[in-house]
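[Discussion] Sanity-checking designs against the backbone

I'm trying to build intuition for which residues belong where. Below is a structure token string of 158 positions. I'd appreciate it if someone posts a full sequence so I can compare it with mine line by line.
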């Protein structure tokens, strides 16, 4: 319940690594997030500190991540922030991980073409026909004779 949800905007720093686990597909990659600021003295934009996050994706998000992302692409990641500290061989280290809920290309930097991923087939799932989203023809829009139009127009009080 009390989780730290964040939205990080950065670039893919490592090629996503995809693994089939007992609990389902999993993918991870490093995300580089660099702060930029306007330097008044130089009158130009300047790169600030770069933070690196390990992004973890599971299930269908993992499959789509591995198929869609490459190093250097601008992305937006929303997920749960998990900061871990550990001591190994006498040295302390800290890791910031994002358990991703959503990952997408940052369209401020370019275009992207969405392709729906294949769903795993299940024997119990019934198939339903696709609904018809087409606009109905003009003749079904309403009555065309004058008497029918007169009945549907609101009365004007004088």
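Best answer:
Here's mine. Compare freely.
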């Amino acid at each position: 319940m009390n989780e730290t949800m964040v939205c990080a905007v950065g670039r893919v720093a490592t090629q996503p690594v995809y693994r089939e686990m007992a609990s389902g597909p999993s993918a991870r990659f490093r995300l580089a997030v660099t702060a930029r600021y306007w330097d008044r003295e130089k009158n130009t934009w300047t790169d600030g500190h770069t933070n690196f996050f390990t992004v973890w994706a599971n299930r269908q998000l993992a499959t789509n991540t591995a198929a869609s992302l490459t190093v250097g692409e601008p992305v937006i990641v929303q997920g749960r922030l998990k900061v871990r500290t550990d001591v190994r061989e006498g040295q302390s280290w800290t890791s910031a991980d994002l358990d991703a809920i959503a990952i997408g290309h940052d369209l401020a930097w370019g275009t992207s073409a969405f392709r729906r991923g294949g769903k795993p087939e299940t024997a119990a799932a019934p198939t339903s026909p696709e609904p018809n989203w087409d606009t109905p023809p003009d003749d079904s829009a309403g009555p065309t004779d004058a008497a029918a139009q007169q009945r549907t127009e609101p009365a004007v009080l004088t």
